[in-house]
Amino acid sequence: MHSVNLGLIGGGTVGSGVWTTLQRNGPLLGARLGVEFQISRVAVKSLEKARLVEFPESIVTDNWRSVVEDPAVQVVLELVGGKTVAREIAIRALELGKPVVTANKALLSAFGEELFATAARHGTNLYYEASVAGGIPIIKVIRESMVGNRILQIAGIVNGTCNYILTRMKLEGAEFSTVLRDAQRLGYAEAEPSLDIDGHDAAHKTGILASLAHGFWVRPETIHTEGIREVTPLDIQFADRLGYTIKLLGMVKELTWQTGENRGQRAIQIAVYPALVPNRHVLASVNHAFNAIAVSGDVVGETLYYGRGAGAEPTASSVLSDLADAALDLVHGCRRRVPPFVPHAREANLIPMAEVVSRYYVRLLVLDRPGVFAGVANILARAHIGISSIIQPEGHAGEVVPVILMIHDATNAVMQKVLIEIEQLPMIKSKPVMFRVEPFE
Amino acid sequence: MHSVNLGLIGGGTVGSGVWTTLQRNGPLLGARLGVEFQISRVAVKSLEKARLVEFPESIVTDNWRSVVEDPAVQVVLELVGGKTVAREIAIRALELGKPVVTANKALLSAFGEELFATAARHGTNLYYEASVAGGIPIIKVIRESMVGNRILQIAGIVNGTCNYILTRMKLEGAEFSTVLRDAQRLGYAEAEPSLDIDGHDAAHKTGILASLAHGFWVRPETIHTEGIREVTPLDIQFADRLGYTIKLLGMVKELTWQTGENRGQRAIQIAVYPALVPNRHVLASVNHAFNAIAVSGDVVGETLYYGRGAGAEPTASSVLSDLADAALDLVHGCRRRVPPFVPHAREANLIPMAEVVSRYYVRLLVLDRPGVFAGVANILARAHIGISSIIQPEGHAGEVVPVILMIHDATNAVMQKVLIEIEQLPMIKSKPVMFRVEPFE
């Protein structure tokens, strides 16, 4: 039996989860791997604070450097969250040649390239399975299991808060703001919810997956990002009538540029937006705080990975998997066997969202009057945009009613222009709302 | 760039698929791994036969030994199927210290322990991701990603033929025999279909997954195995009315023995049978030839993995993933980093199916007459079995009608006994049919 000493930095939810599960399943890990894990040092922010776990006094400190620099510590678990101290911890450990395991997607998204370079320079490794989609082993799957595939598409439900809100809106017909408040009360959403509901967290994760799939590091600011604030119960209900469920998706697509001077070139679209998913697709039945990621490869076809995207224990499961890899790599003397990231493509043809051809769901609020629709139809016709279906609930003359248009195949730029024109029509009573439709064909 | 020479044995569907995809995506694999793969020798059964792929004459032979024993060949791909020659090939390669990649679940199921021991003795490795569920990376997931988890339950749709048949029966209301003939015509089912539709293929795969999860090698003959021949469109329709879909499941459950002298002990149930799956569960929406495996761990909670379970390309995707691992292990000098199988438990408490407590769906055909149900109710009451619901379509007096009972929590032994008693009642017009209900709570 080999023994591997760990330094745990962070005594919060994730750190405590890792501590507890390692106590519980340490013997099982030992039996499976031939490795005994020992958390020999723990660093927390403050020694005064009450914690989920009572760490033994003899090993706990509020000085992370003393843990990272302890010669006995062989692997560093960076589980503090945030980007500033977390970055210092990771860099210092890597500089000492120690492998780092992290669950920190914000850190990775912002400083991934610096961390990878530091790890390479010092002949060590960085493991980050827990940074995307909690307990779903999506990093290992894309990097190792699908290594023989060109990745054609990734479509991920990677933010549990948004999925929880959208699921409850669908099941209960409730308003976004009502469910959000409830989610905040239950701890599923932060008091400052923007990181989740405006899509930024999903963009961090989508960027990491896109990077692994396509071999160039994606900066989060290049990702077109929309959140779920504009989704109403009405949209969810109409989508269902049309056979769809609205989900916040992180999308990474390989596609062919269809307009302008790049026409015919291959390009990568990376974006986060609420989209209509066909009810027959497995993603549509991923409910509540669960995550799922559909990945299509040119060899394997469509695959999908489902599980809990957050929480102490699902995250701990991925941290333990990384720990196992780190320990095996140490024990077998192959620390860089699978590097954290292999850049193998140039900064590829990232297609701007404006140039992407999509299908759309559009909701208008119109004053119900004879001839009301001619204005809208004319604008669409002039832009050469086809309508695949219209739902117009019967209203009384003079009432304001919703009209739903399903539109196929127009660039996002053309759609933006058209929606601005439509908004100016006299019978249109509010800003048109538009969501993309993902056909999953 | 490292170079790794492969010996490919088998020029059938899978062998050709691996050849073709390696030609196509070799450069991508090279960029990602820093390894250039070279299929330097190919062995086929007969040089005369027309093939999907034209292998270059200079490298092809009908003598597998010359390939396996060629000193230039570093990794052997055993893709011939069957158990006799395949076993010889694998054993010989392992004896020479060469890593073997196989897609052969029958081989593994029958001779797994011998192959693992041979690999260990000669300091080499055996890789078999493609042997279970085609393109789904379930071996790596259970062995590496869930390594920190006690595996509480595995529920797998692991036979594409059965799932194709059950899906079409549900969507079209068609009879089993009609769909089976059609599946045979389309190549989804063999002319001799028993291996698939009687559950044996699913049992091979379920045994491999159970072995990995629980750390003792499961012999297929210890797996209680039922197929789908008894499922009728009527059952599928009634199940749907009750909120369920019928799927052939490979089940591996950790449970508590509830009867007899072992009462209170932990035990493992391993079985294959058609079961009612709640429609709200993702497994219920896995259709046609797709596979999916739900795995619950004590740390991660419920996870699920979905993809194509067979076919040249999905299988090739898993073979390429194994090839990548084999090559990295060679290049980094860590050939036994993750051994093919680590026995870490004794031949555990395997619970016989008779002792397992399940829920049931029971279909009776009865002569519709006043008082018809008293006899059935008395038998169930005497056995202390509760009925959670009854569906009895209205018929005309004197007609033979189906009656559906949903029964909760009885051992399989008691149910067998009760069904035999019920069958002997005068108004029962055919052998009662019973399927288990998996609640996924």
What would you say this structure looks like, in words?
Chain A has 441 residues and is α/β, with parallel strands linked by helices. Chain A folds into 3 domains: 2-135 and 312-331, Rossmann fold, CATH 3.40.50; 139-308, Dihydrodipicolinate Reductase, domain 2; 356-437, ACT domain (Alpha-Beta Plaits). In chain A, 36% of the residues lie in helices and 26% in strands. Chain A contains 13 helices and 16 strands. In chain A, strands 7, 8, 9, 10, 11, 12, 13, 14, 15 and 16 form a 10-stranded mixed sheet that branches. In chain A, strands 3-2-1-4-5-6 form a 6-stranded parallel sheet, sandwiched between helices. Chain A starts with a strand and ends with a strand. The mean pLDDT of chain A is 95. Chains A and B meet through helix 1, helix 5, strand 12 and helix 11 of A and helix 1, helix 5, strand 12 and helix 11 of B. Strand 12 of chain A pairs antiparallel with strand 12 (301-308) of chain B.
Summarize this structure as a short list of keywords or feature phrases:
3 domains; 441 residues; alpha/beta; Rossmann fold; six-stranded parallel sheet; ten-stranded mixed sheet; homodimer; 13 helices; 26% strand; Dihydrodipicolinate Reductase, domain 2; Alpha-Beta Plaits
State the assembly state of the protein chains. homodimer
Q: Spans of chain A with pLDDT under 50 lasting ≥5 residues?
A: none
CATH top level of the largest domain in chain A is Alpha Beta
Considering DSSP H and I runs of 4 or more, what fraction of the residues of chain A is helical? 25-40%
Number of strands of chain A: 16
Biggest sheet of chain A, open or closed, and with what strands and sense? 10 strands, mixed
Please compute the radius of gyration of chain A using only Cα atoms.
24 Å
The two chains with the largest interface, and their residue counts, are:
A-B, 64 and 64 residues
Query: Please, what is the CATH homologous superfamily of the largest domain in chain A?
Result: Dihydrodipicolinate Reductase, domain 2
Order of helices and strands of chain A: EHEEHEHEHEHEHHHHEHEEEEHEHEEHE
Summed up, the helix count of chain A is 13
- The amount of beta strand of chain A, in percent, is 25-35%
Structural class category of chain A: alpha/beta
N→C terminal distance of chain A: 50 Å
CATH topology name of the largest domain in chain A, in short, is Dihydrodipicolinate Reductase, domain 2
Number of domains of chain A: 3
Average residue-wise pLDDT of chain A: 95
What would the principal axes of the Cα set say about the shape of chain A? elongated
